[in-house]
Amino acid sequence: MGSGQWMVERRSSFGNDSFPKEHETVSESGCLSIIVLGASGDLAKKKTFPALYHLYRQGFLDSNEVHIFGYARTKISDDDLRDRIRGYLGKDAEHVSKFLQLIKYVSGSYDSEDGFQLLDKEISQHEESKNSAEGSSRRLFYLALPPSVYPPVCRMIKKCCMNNSDLGGWTRIVIEKPFGKDLESAENLSAQIGELFEEAQLYRIDHYLGKELVQNLLVLRFANRFFLPLWNRDNIANVQIVFREDFGTEGRGGYFDEYGIIRDIIQNHLLQVLCLVAMEKPCFSQT
Ligand SMILES: NC(=O)C1=CN([C@@H]2O[C@H](COP(=O)(O)OP(=O)(O)OC[C@H]3O[C@@H](n4cnc5c(N)ncnc54)[C@H](OP(=O)(O)O)[C@@H]3O)[C@@H](O)[C@H]2O)C=CC1
Ligand SMILES: O=C1O[C@H](COP(=O)(O)O)[C@@H](O)[C@H](O)[C@H]1O
C-alpha cells in the first residue's frame, strides 16, 4: 500500500477530514506550555519527565519560553512532584535543579471544570509573563492517563484550556497507547475525541516504535547483507519475544485492574516487535 492510499484509509477510519494542510505554516515561536496530565503516575515519572529533561539538556526546550505543568488528582505540592521525579532525570544535579524549577503542579479531577479552570489560569499567567509582543502561545497536553479518562479530559481541555491568544499559536493533544480496549472502544474514543479536536491537533503515540533497538530491527533485517538471505523459516527454528520487568506493580494496580497487563503490553508493543521481526520487506512504491 502506498502513502497516498494510506492517507485515504486513515481519514475514513478516524472519521475526521481535517488533516493538516500540507502548505499551512504554524508558528513555532513564543511561549510553550507543556502540560502532563496524570503527572503523579508511572509513565510521567519514568518516561515523560525524563524525555522532557533530555530535550531540555539538548537545547530543544528554551527556559525563556517553556513552562511545564503537572496535573493529577493526587494532592501534592510542586516540590513533592519534583522530588518524585528527580531520581529519574540524571546525575547532573545543577541542570536537574534548573529543569525542575520549570515545573509547576496543579491538582484537580479529570471531569470537573474547577481543576481545569485553575490549570488554565496558571498557564495564562505563565504566558502573560513570558510573551513578547510578537510571540504566540503553544499549549501541548500530554495524556499520561488510562484511556478511560481521555474523553472527559479532552472535553475539559476544549472547554477550559484552549489557546485563544490573539497572537496565534496552537493547542495539541498527545495520547499514549493503548487506544481503547478493542476495535469498538478504539473507534468510540476516536469519535469522541474527533468531535473536539481536528486530526492535525492529535498525536497518538507508542514509545516502543521510538526505541533504537526496535527501529534497528528494520536495518538489521533489510540492510544487512549477512542477515537478509538467512532471515527466513529455513534458518530460524523459533522466535521468542521476552518482556521482563525487574520490579513490581508499583502504583499501576488501579490501571492494571481495569485494562490488564496483556492489553497494556502485548497487543501494541510486543505485536509491533513481532511484525518487525516477521513481516515481509516493506514496499515503498507510491500508488
Ligand atoms: N508506565 C509506562 O511506562 C507507560 C505507560 N503507558 C500508558 O500510559 C497510561 C498511564 O500509565 P501509567 O502512568 O503507567 O499508569 P498509572 O496507573 O500510574 O496512572 C497514571 C495516573 O493516572 C491516574 N489514574 C490511574 N488510574 C486511574 C483511573 N482508573 N481513573 C482516573 N485516573 C486514574 C493516577 O493519577 P491521580 O490519581 O493522581 O489522578 C495515576 O497517577 C496507560 O495508558 C499506559 O498504557 C504508555 C507507555 C509507557
Ligand atoms: O507501555 C508500557 O510500557 C512500559 C515498559 O516500557 P519500557 O520502555 O520500560 O520497556 C510498562 O512498564 C508500562 O506498564 C506500559 O504501560
Automatic annotation (TrEMBL):
<dbReference type="GO" id="GO:0005829">
    <property type="term" value="C:cytosol"/>
</dbReference>
<feature type="domain" description="Glucose-6-phosphate dehydrogenase NAD-binding">
    <location>
        <begin position="35"/>
        <end position="216"/>
    </location>
</feature>
<keyword id="KW-0119">Carbohydrate metabolism</keyword>
<comment type="pathway">
    <text>Carbohydrate degradation; pentose phosphate pathway; D-ribulose 5-phosphate from D-glucose 6-phosphate (oxidative stage): step 1/3.</text>
</comment>
<dbReference type="GO" id="GO:0006006">
    <property type="term" value="P:glucose metabolic process"/>
</dbReference>
<comment type="similarity">
    <text>Belongs to the glucose-6-phosphate dehydrogenase family.</text>
</comment>
<keyword id="KW-0521">NADP</keyword>
<dbReference type="InterPro" id="IPR019796">
    <property type="entry name" value="G6P_DH_AS"/>
</dbReference>
<dbReference type="InterPro" id="IPR036291">
    <property type="entry name" value="NAD(P)-bd_dom_sf"/>
</dbReference>
<feature type="domain" description="Glucose-6-phosphate dehydrogenase C-terminal">
    <location>
        <begin position="218"/>
        <end position="283"/>
    </location>
</feature>
<dbReference type="GO" id="GO:0004345">
    <property type="term" value="F:glucose-6-phosphate dehydrogenase activity"/>
</dbReference>
<dbReference type="GO" id="GO:0050661">
    <property type="term" value="F:NADP binding"/>
</dbReference>
<dbReference type="Pfam" id="PF00479">
    <property type="entry name" value="G6PD_N"/>
</dbReference>
<dbReference type="GO" id="GO:0009051">
    <property type="term" value="P:pentose-phosphate shunt, oxidative branch"/>
</dbReference>
<keyword id="KW-0313">Glucose metabolism</keyword>
<dbReference type="Pfam" id="PF02781">
    <property type="entry name" value="G6PD_C"/>
</dbReference>
<keyword id="KW-0560">Oxidoreductase</keyword>
<protein>
    <recommendedName>
        <fullName>glucose-6-phosphate dehydrogenase (NADP(+))</fullName>
        <ecNumber>1.1.1.49</ecNumber>
    </recommendedName>
</protein>
<dbReference type="InterPro" id="IPR001282">
    <property type="entry name" value="G6P_DH"/>
</dbReference>
<dbReference type="InterPro" id="IPR022675">
    <property type="entry name" value="G6P_DH_C"/>
</dbReference>
<dbReference type="InterPro" id="IPR022674">
    <property type="entry name" value="G6P_DH_NAD-bd"/>
</dbReference>
